Structures are given as structure tokens and as C-alpha cells.
Amino acid sequence: MQKVLLVDDDPHILEVLQFALKTAGFAIDQARDGTQALERFRADRPDLVVLDVSLPELDGYDVCRSLRREAATPIVFLSSRTEELDRILALELGGDDYVLKPFSPRELVARIKAVLRRAAAPAVPVEKPRVMAHGPLKLDEDLFKAFWEQQEIVLTATEFELLRALMGHPGKVYRRDELIDRAYGGEVVVSDRTIDSHVRRLRQKIAAAGGDPIETVHGVGYRLAV
């Protein structure tokens, strides 16, 4: 049974989410502020975190920053903030999805399942190598890890799928809609700006390890430099 950590300071939302997720077969843990969220995460290591942005103690963005220094556990943000910049910030910090309040519990459960399916890294066709390499960049599909030379790059499930697509055909220019299909499996409708945010975060992580292999093809999409 997969465990979901629910983080929200609204008891009614926690009650609604707990009922919906338990009905869907998930085990549930709860936290009502940012500090407690980090404590519960470190104690129980859930499979996914549903994280409200507006929290006492530490807000959702601060919690996400802390979690991303420790793990690549999927994070689904909840927020009443409708500005595009808020959604972009959440994704750039390492969030895997961003759901606006008020929300449909059934839709949220569906999105959580979709994120968890991506995080499970399903097997690729047998003709593809389990370890992909392009110069110093390596992607171990069995261990779900990426490396630049010998330094590990901790990726979210979405970032991993994007990098796997780019490494599958170095030099090929991937349009944004192609990358959306690769990263989300056609299960979630997202904007081009969302993909741009994920790619920007991916490039920042690789750059921190000493590399910069992803190129922007303006007006089209992205490619892995040959």
C-alpha cells in the first residue's frame, strides 16, 4: 500500500483528502504546518507528498526546497494562488504537479496516481539499453539515477523522463508537445511553460554537476547536444 503525506492547515481539506485517498487504497499521514511536514516525511518516508503552498511555520515552497535536498519523492502542490508565476515557481523548485483550490477530489486522486506511475519508471522496450550514456552524462534506468561523470544528479520523475527522451536521440530536436507526451504519458494537460520550467530545472541540476548538454532551439523545443 502506497503512503501519501497530506500537508495542509485546513482540517476540512485534510478530512476530504483523507477520505478520497483512503477510498482509493492509499495509506495516509498528515501534517498541518511546514515544520511538522518535514518531521513526518523524515520519520515515515512516504511515496508522495500533497503539499499546500500557504502553511504556517514554513510555507510549501520552503518545505519543497528542503525535501528536494534530501529526496526525489514526488510532490503535488495544492494552492489557491492562480498566478502563472506561482505555478512556475512550484515546478522549478521540483514539484511534479500543481492543483488549484477548489479542486475535485477525484481529479486530484487521478493526478496523484499519474505522478506515481511516472515515478515508478516502467520498463522500456528490451532493445533499449538499461544504462544510457552520452559523453559524461549517464542515465541508469534500473536504479532510476542520473550522473554527470561520477557525480549523481537527483531528479524528479518528470525530469528523469525528459532526460531519457532527450538521451534517446541526441541531436534530435524535440518539440514541447513531444516532451509533454514523454514526461506525462498523455495523461495530464499541461502548458508549454510547464515543460520549460521542468527543462530549466533539469539544466540547473546538470550545470551544478559541471555539465550543460541541453540546447534550446528557439521557437521549437530542445535537444541534447551532439
Determine the structural class based on helices, strands and strand pairing.
Answer: alpha/beta
Q: Based on Cα principal axes, name the global outline.
A: globular
What is the CATH domain class of the largest domain? Alpha Beta
First-residue to last-residue Cα separation: 43 Å
How is the main sheet built? Answer: 5 strands, parallel
Radius of gyration: 17 Å
Low-confidence stretches: 123-127
Helix fraction bin = 40-55%
| Order of helix and strand elements from N to C terminus | EHEHEHEHEHEEEEHEHHEE
Any overview of this molecule?
By secondary structure, the protein is of the alpha/beta class. It folds into two domains: 3-119, 3-Layer(aba) Sandwich (Rossmann fold), CATH 3.40.50.2300; 131-224, Winged helix-like DNA-binding domain superfamily/Winged helix DNA-binding domain (Arc Repressor Mutant, subunit A, Orthogonal Bundle). The chain is 42% helix and 22% strand. The protein has eight helices and twelve strands. The strands form three sheets. Strands 2-1-3-4-5 form a five-stranded parallel beta sheet, sandwiched between helices. A four-stranded antiparallel beta sheet has the order 6-7-8-9, covered by helices on one side. Strands 10-12-11 form a three-stranded antiparallel beta sheet. A hairpin with a 2-residue loop joins strand 8 and strand 9. The longest helix is centred in the C-terminal third of the chain and has 17 residues, at 192-208. The chain is globular, with a radius of gyration of 17 Å. Residues 123-127 have low confidence and may be disordered.
